[in-house]
Amino acid sequence: MSYGDFMPLLETFGIYDAASTDDVLAFCSSMEASPRQREVLSTYTCRVHALAVDIASKVAEGLGILDFSFQDWHCTMRLNVYDLKEETIGLEAAYLHSDSGFLTVLLEGEINGLEVVDQTGKFVAVHSQPGTFVAIIGDMGKVWSNGRLRNVQHRVICTQAAPRISISFSVVSPRDGVVVSPAPLVDEEHPRIYRSVPYNDYREFRRSPSSLDGNFLSLYQAEE
Ligand SMILES: O=C(O)CCC(=O)C(=O)O
Ligand SMILES: [Fe+2]
């Protein structure tokens, strides 16, 4: 099941292993991409991968974890295509959710609509700026940081009758799929919140409309 199955205004498809050139090229072949399209897509994926990995390690650095590399982490890339019409204005085009991975780097097109939930629980509209990306921490970011980073809930509202496209690139989990907070982030003042999370199992739990908000993390609460 994909988001599109229960979000009727959204069609989403993408590359399962976006850090792998082979997977990117296989995706291009399945889409019957022209040589120029292949070049654009593989260059884009490669550069956004480098950017996302760089942002992730800077985030880690901000938490005092130096020289941590996300280079080999599993990454996914999704193209979101929204079919927005006059009669859908004001509706949720993407339901409120948190992203399941560590960090998402989101390229917004010209059509606004993204809203994030701030610390006080209020929705804040994100106005897309040409030449910029939006970075959003996901559920695995919260697990990895032992709760220091917030998995930011967000949604997309239909604001105008125009096709809307966004591209999300996510740094998801280590290659072995197991996300665990590094030892320096756990101490007496900050007891471990979550035991290690096998990402693929976690992802399975989230495959229903009522489970997208990151609250399923409570299943992985560490023992007292
Ligand atoms: O289309 C957007 O602006 C948001 C997409 C999104 O939340 C996602 O891909 O997880
Ligand atoms: Fe998202």
From TrEMBL:
One of its GO terms (molecular function) is metal ion binding. Residues 72-173 form the Fe2OG dioxygenase domain. SUPFAM superfamilies: Clavaminate synthase-like. The keyword Secreted does not apply. The keyword Metal-binding applies. InterPro entries: IPNS-like_FE2OG_OXY (IPR044861), IPNS-like_sf (IPR027443), Iron_ascorbate_oxido_reductase (IPR050231), Oxoglu/Fe-dep_dioxygenase_dom (IPR005123). Keywords: Iron, Metal-binding, Oxidoreductase. Belongs to the iron/ascorbate-dependent oxidoreductase family. This is Fe2OG dioxygenase domain-containing protein. It comes from Vanilla planifolia (Vanilla).
